[in-house]
From TrEMBL:
<dbReference type="GO" id="GO:0030247">
    <property type="term" value="F:polysaccharide binding"/>
</dbReference>
<dbReference type="GO" id="GO:0016020">
    <property type="term" value="C:membrane"/>
</dbReference>
<keyword id="KW-0812">Transmembrane</keyword>
<feature type="signal peptide">
    <location>
        <begin position="1"/>
        <end position="25"/>
    </location>
</feature>
<protein>
    <recommendedName>
        <fullName>Wall-associated receptor kinase galacturonan-binding domain-containing protein</fullName>
    </recommendedName>
</protein>
<dbReference type="InterPro" id="IPR025287">
    <property type="entry name" value="WAK_GUB"/>
</dbReference>
<keyword id="KW-0472">Membrane</keyword>
<feature type="domain" description="Wall-associated receptor kinase galacturonan-binding">
    <location>
        <begin position="34"/>
        <end position="97"/>
    </location>
</feature>
<keyword id="KW-1133">Transmembrane helix</keyword>
<keyword id="KW-0732">Signal</keyword>
<dbReference type="Pfam" id="PF13947">
    <property type="entry name" value="GUB_WAK_bind"/>
</dbReference>
<feature type="transmembrane region" description="Helical">
    <location>
        <begin position="265"/>
        <end position="287"/>
    </location>
</feature>
Amino acid sequence: MARGLTLSAVLTAFIALVLVHETCSATAKVNHNCAPSSCGNIHNISFPFRLKNDPEKCGDSRYELSCENNHTVLSLFERRYYVKEINYNNYTIRIADSGIQKGNYSSTPSYSLNRHNFSQYPSAYTTYLPKWTRNTELSRSVVWMSCEKPVNSPFYLGASTCNIDSGDQYSSNSSISHFKRYRYVKVGRTNANDVVDWCKIEQMFITSWPGNEGPINISCADVPNELVYGFELSWLRGTCKSYCGRWSDDDCYLDHGNHVGCFNIGGFLFIILYIVRVTLAAIVATIDH
């Protein structure tokens, strides 16, 4: 009898735990009297974003943008990025290095950036979209490498062949610039064992360009498109409290219908207490019999 009660308690608790991960309204708990702002081709700038000259009550200061020469600019790690798009349906913002010029294939990013930047320092953004089952990565790497000798690999694109200025600007102050180097571009996930022994990584960038997901099929023409398109970041984790309440911290996610799901910590504590109470009742019943 006690075993049956305990099993029933656990099953009930499991069902309740699933229900605790309730989907809440995707409407943030903020002042909606603020009129949307705009700059250049970015319209409807609203929560959590704000422009520098917006009233203080509008938006979140961590997501402040500036309008410079008709460009919407995001300052990230003390670097400037042009805002290409803000998608309020999936809680992402797409930005591109301000040094990239559309139509100029020889232009290269001014800054090195990779996913590690966002995990090493506290950031209001993530390079992934938080999901209930698993996080969805929003970008992939673009790696500039300098090699002592040629590399024969379908994953490596020769920078000179692609007419890409991979840049002496990156290595002019380093010792490797005094020797003849062969420069390559690699797109996609790059682990340490993917870099051949005679090559060194000079710079890393990230891109979300949807034109080609397979790194082995990347062509020279694709590389400038990767850089011009820029990369996506998610602000959802940084604004969980605005959607789900003060106890949520970063415990929220996006469900299959693009609704914000909230983890109810109060409900979780209730379940723990319920399990304890029912289990104790089962033990007492066993002793009585």
